[in-house]
Amino acid sequence: MRLTGGERTALIYGLAGIIGKSAGLAIIPLLALFLSLDEVGRWAELTVLRILSAAVGTACLDAWLTQRFHKQEDSVRQAFAAGCVLLAWRWSLIVALPGVLIAGLAAADLIAAHWLLWGLVGAASALGGASTVGLSLLRITEKPKIFAVLNGLVGAVSVALCWGTVAAAGWGLWGVAAGTLLPWVGASVWFAWTCRGGQASWTDASGFTWRTMPSRLLSEVSTQVDRLVLGIFVSDRALGLYDLALRTAGAVGMVQGSLKNTLMPTCLRRLAEGKPIAATLRQGGLALLAAGFAVVAGGVVLAQLRPEWRESAVFLPGAVAVQCWWFAGAANGIASYHAGLVRLQAFLPLVTLPLITAGMAVGLASGGIWGGQWLLVAGTAAGVLVTERAIRRSRPDLPGNAWLFLEMGIASALLLGLSLLPWWAGCGAALVSSAIAGGWYVLRRR
User: Fold this and answer.
1) pLDDT in tens, 285-338
2) DSSP secondary-structure letter at 1?
3) Residue of 411, 404, 426, 422 lying closest to 290 (CA atoms)
4) Helices assigned H by DSSP within 59-74
5) Is the Cβ–Cβ distance between 28 and 244 less than 8 Å?
6) I need a labelling partner for 16 at 20 to 30 A (CA). Which of 121, 135, 333, 432 fits?
7) What is the distance between the alpha carbons of residues 220 and 349, in angstroms, rounded to a whole number?
8) Is 330 within 8 Å of 253 (Cβ atoms)?
């Protein structure tokens, strides 16, 4: 069967999504096996700096490219080339991750290893930031199911690439570096050749950057506020325990991102037709909850393998609860995109970020990291609800998502309650909750 240009583009972005999400999962066994908890905490601090610097490095070109590809007749061809760059960049990241970490730690210290790894793959961040072009193409081509199918392969891909590269780390640091950069160089040349003679205006791009950079940075800080606050007030070891749980919850984040990518085109089409989207989003929420409770159960069981990991498992339910509210926040993003509320969306982080930061700080002062995480969940939920209220005041004709928010709130309370139980009881309750959410999802699909 011959694929159309839109289908091939959706396929390449699906592969890029798998590789990108795998990188976050692949680093978990490496950090747990090769670093102490203090070093994991320092690695988390460096990760925050890297993520924030990446937001500056992309210069909001991802959003600008998305808008441009909506308007250009050759959008499919150019987006496919950009997708190849993104795929090569993310492949470089996951392939380089174990080798550079091990070789860098052997040759230098933790900080040097972290930034050496980022330097190898970060040169492509500006082009790699074109990932949201994939969402643009999915909205145009209506081929979201490809994402769902490909994301089912993520486990096998992450394990094979992670441990295969560890076994081949004897090639040396520069061998890994050369092998990492070659696919990016080739894909970048292809992208430049494909876009030659285009109608891109760098004056327009720079103007767009200056207008959107403040809100972009605020949004990135919102996602990293827990690590930022903990990095200031707690020890490296405590931050390391929290970070391991946060990275384990990244498996739920992979599902959450996939659901947003697959549901957004359908929801936007239904809104354009004047149809409700609440049922579609609630089905996605049930699928996310089934995966989230299952990840909590698996993480709690694995934490029993080593005594120090057990201290980390108590933070896993809260990390999954935050992912649930991020999915609920996607409903606001869909409504804003449909209604053209760009300015409102840009300035809302000025309201939501203080809510999240204050919740984390107050909880940390009153109940330690655990209390901080509880109020982080509450602050994230408050930010989502404030955003929804602002959108509804601007466009009261848009459909609401009260039931979705209610279900996410109930699930968050259940998840946080699991951390109060003994590990075996929490694991059992998580499995039962996962089965209920999964069964409910199947019944609603019929």
Assistant:
1) 998 999 999 999 988 888 888 787 788 888 999 999 999 999 998 888 888 877
2) -
3) 411
4) 61-71
5) yes
6) 333
7) 10
8) no
